[in-house]
């Protein structure tokens, strides 16, 4: 135990004088006022009124005394005790309201008794809080003495209920109080030490207490024993005096214990002071050396985390060769040297992991490109053959079947281009001259499986720069396909375009189930800042391709809710890529020489 704990024990007696004793006095006066109020409710005679008013004056005096002494103790009390003091003062402030209802005859006996009980319970809660002390034996005995005081409180509640002719409900409550009081007394006697137990045993073995128990049994049975008020009041007074004696005995016990603790604390403090001085001298010498070595270690760790590893990762993603110098941390302390070696191992492991990831991504990208290029070659040859068959076909049904095959080939070509985009390369499709934006959007709609559900609205007479036509067609086609996939088959997907302040805006609107605000925010973030492609996240492949294409040409793609409950994708093409159409020659959609493709028909539903 410390000197602070010794002072805590010494303040126990002060708290007893400033809080426990005033609270006990107030409890006693409240118990008497509860009894007189119950008598007044039972029979409002002039004598009962005079007795009630006299007792109220005594209660007010005890209340004011408690309020003054509690204010003196508030500053040195713990937050929990201060809260309990405030609770008691709040409950005591209800006395005027309780008295008013009693005088007006508005409150029956049981509610009146319960109103006073609430105030008494708050006071006993304060006493239990004040009894908290670090000396366990004293605390345990204090708790038992308080429980015995509460047993006396239950006895006074019995008096109040039995003041008249109790009803059946009141006798049940009386029976509960009798059982609780006897239980508290039996429990406390088993744990009290000899001096305190002797005081209580003298009470419960007295003839007066035995006579009281007989009267209680008679009241429970429905009888009204003669002499109950006098017998119960005399026993309550005896118990009160025993409580005061036990409280004084406990208060005296705390002081010698505090003296012994203080002496022991001083001896320990002197010894501890010598140890502390020696340890400080040793710590200062060791601390200076350790601080220098730790500063060096900290600088090396920050350099690895903030500079070296990010540079390595960036170079690996750019395909550059790297050389990572070995990390060395000078130090004479074995622990510092071990930490330095651990950092070097961590650095090497991180670099090896980054190199492995870069190689894996490069390998996957190469596989994507090889597969896509081969597919492109085969699809290009297939489209040439389909175009020749379409030109020679005369049967309308056969021509329609050839058209569907041609449309399927076009979609397969777009998927092959998607693989090339994922690999980081650029598709070969492009145009030399500007292409009307209306034709660009119609070409994108023609590459979608459910193209018959797509409605392309008329657009302003502007053209798109030839080098970006292929990527824009692919981008818009991915958005249209998403719209058709995630909307009911009977609904239409509307595509509109108009000139905006910062370029040309194309809107793709569906009438599906839509997305939540959180999903829209997440997808817009990925479209604005596309992450590295993750092979495990293939569900959003189309949007990843859209993000890559948009980033390549500084195109902004935004998703938002549609008034029809679906989703609207807005594609804002920069103004430098859009121009006004000046001649009919610029409107021809002629592919470049490296991607010669025959002209083919596009069946797209357009609005009038």
From TrEMBL:
Reactions that this protein is recorded to catalyse: ATP + protein L-histidine = ADP + protein N-phospho-L-histidine
EC id: 2.7.13.3
Histidine kinase domain mapped to chain residues: 472-577
Enzyme class of the recorded protein, top EC level: transferase
Transmembrane segment boundaries: 261-284
Gene Ontology molecular function terms on file: kinase activity
PANTHER family, A to Z: SENSOR HISTIDINE KINASE TRCS, SENSOR HISTIDINE KINASE YKOH
Protein name as catalogued: histidine kinase
Upper taxonomic lineage: Bacteria, Bacillati, Actinomycetota, Actinomycetes, Streptosporangiales
